[in-house]
Amino acid sequence: MITVSSPVSGRAVGLAQVPDPVFAGSMVGPGTAVDPVRAPAAALAPVDGTIVSLHPHAFVVLDDHGHGVLTHLGIDTVQLAGEGFRVLVAKGDTVVRGRPVIEWDPAAVAAAGRSPVCPVVALEATAEALTGLADGREVRAGDTLFHWTSTATESEGA
């Protein structure tokens, strides 16, 4: 079982409440989201692993078992072309849960007319593989958002 931690502090909200049909419909994968505190902060790695995808507004950490976790900082923030984001790691870096990955300002994202809500998605997972999803409660960066249970096949191969 993998524990996925919140990359930011704020209020956990279900993916269905994310103002983007792709995330709201769990088309990228199941998970949850955090409506962040409106203050400059660093988004933290939600799991131990390797940075396999990195953009100013989003990153994916792949753990040692092949589980990828996507953290997306806001909605439609790709349109900001990196403005207001400062990347602190490089693609290929190994990170531990809680390591700062990107500095950003959710209030500036909101002022630019974008939603600062942060989906945290278990890539290539089934909804049934996730337990303890945080929803409707305050979380601090580093708090548990959900647990990702391995399938029997994954457990046998580990």
Automatic annotation (TrEMBL):
It is found in: Cytoplasm. GO terms for molecular function: kinase activity. Keywords: Kinase, Phosphotransferase system, Sugar transport, Transferase, Transport. GO terms for cellular component: cytoplasm. SUPFAM superfamilies: Duplicated hybrid motif. One of its GO terms (biological process) is phosphoenolpyruvate-dependent sugar phosphotransferase system. Residues 20-124 form the PTS EIIA type-1 domain. PANTHER family: PTS SYSTEM GLUCOSE-SPECIFIC EIIA COMPONENT. This is PTS system, N-acetylglucosamine-specific IIA component. It comes from Streptomyces aidingensis.
